[in-house]
Amino acid sequence: MKLNKLTTLAAAAMTMFAGNALAEKWDMPMAYAATNYHSEHGVMFADKVKEYTNGDLEITVHPGGSLFGGADIKRAIQTGQAPIGERIMSAHANEEPLLNWDNQPFLATTYEDSAKLWEAARDTVNATLADMNLVALYTCPWPGQGFYFKGEVSSSADVKGMKLRSYNAATATVIESLGGTPVQIEAAELTQALATGVADGFISSGSTGYDRKVWEHLSHYYKVNAWLPRNYVMVNKGVWEGLDGDTQAALQKAADETGASCTAKSAELSDWYFEQLAANGMTVTDAGPEFLAELQEIGAKMQAEWLSQVGDNGQQIIDAYQGN
Ligand code: PCA
Question: How far are the Cα atoms of 4, 39, 88, 248, 259 from residue 31, in angstroms, in the given order?
């Protein structure tokens, strides 16, 4: 009797200290800096999942490409090396061009329009991801994309010959169209690339410039807000389908709440990032009229090319977004 009671107490204490020993444990690779709001929301998501599954599912977040490099995260999930993870969705457009839906320059340049565009694209995107053995749990936008340079740039003539860091096929196309040479580099490697002269500048939001302290190497940021690309948290489809209904519902609730909070945070921080770049000595300004006109022309060409690649699926997204 006494022994039984002790054993029960000991077991309870062990559960308290070690967590739920029977809990399913998932590792979640994420691509961006641990202090970035995307990664912080990954941790928030994991906390919510633990709560809503009553401790049955514990997710450990590995930010900054520490478990799998950013470029390897999708494959790791598709092949089941990791059940869940996060990455910028448009980096997967070289496999599925439809996933360039949120990298069309000047199509959706505000948070409101970004939300509308995602609404219009969601079903088609989810069907595309299902074909890739993936299920998206939530998405979260980066702030608007602009240009980082070492000096003043007023048109493509100033960009000619520059090596500029790209993060996906769309950014590489913009850089090539401007007469620069794209160099694909992970956000996690960006500071090093700038320090060693592998890249002279890059396209991104204020967020990544802030995370990587790029004012140590670069002087100008041109706010273009050309598009707001999304990160997404994805699960292996087989793993998802193997979960019982309650666990799926708990994960989806955690995901819906986290996605909404992450999106709000992105909007809240977008101007703050500009202030930080300026406070650290960068010139943060709008792109000049000549540069902007060139970018708009490049954007129109990219959208036409994208539509010819993806056909009706793409046109339906644009029509739904524009309310046709
Ligand atoms: N930051 C990420 C993607 C888009 C963004 O704003 C990066 O530069 O890699």
Answer: 48, 8, 8, 24, 17
Contact 153, 203 (CB under 8 A): no
List, in order of start, the domains of the chain with CATH numbers: 21-142+229-270 (3.40.190.170), 146-227+273-323 (3.40.190.170)
Alpha-carbon distance of 82 to 44, in angstroms, equals 19
Identity of the amino acid at 252: Q
- The CA-CA-CA angle for residues 106, 108, 114, to 5°, reads 155
In this structure, the residue with its CA closest to atom 3 of ligand 1 is 204
What pLDDT is stored for residue 169 in this prediction? 97
207 in ligand 1 pocket by Cβ < 6 Å? Answer: yes
Q: pLDDT tens digits for 80-120?
A: 999 999 999 999 999 999 999 999 999 999 999 999 999 99
User: Cβ(229) to ligand 1 under 6 A?
Assistant: yes
pLDDT digits (tens, 9 = 90+) for 66-79: 999 999 999 999 99
**Could you tell which of 88, 114, 202 is best to mutate to test the pocket of ligand 1, judged by most ligand atoms within 8 Å of the CB?**
88
The rounded distance, in Å, linking the Cα atoms of 117 and 56 is: 35
Contact 204 CB / ligand 1 (< 6 Å): yes
Looking up tokens 């994309």, which residue turns up? Answer: 145
Question: What backbone phi and psi angles, to 5 degrees, belong to 80?
Answer: 80, 10
CA 229 to chain centre: 7
Q: Centre a 10 Å sphere on the Cβ of residue 205 and count the other Cβ atoms it contains.
A: 24
- pLDDT single digits (tens) 150-195: 999 999 999 999 999 999 999 999 999 999 999 999 999 999 999 9
Virtual torsion, Cα 165, 296, 89, 144, nearest 10 deg? 80
d(CA 47, CA 165): 34
In angstroms, rounded to a whole number, what is the distance separating the alpha carbons of residues 85 and 196? 30
CB 58 within 8 A of CB 23: yes
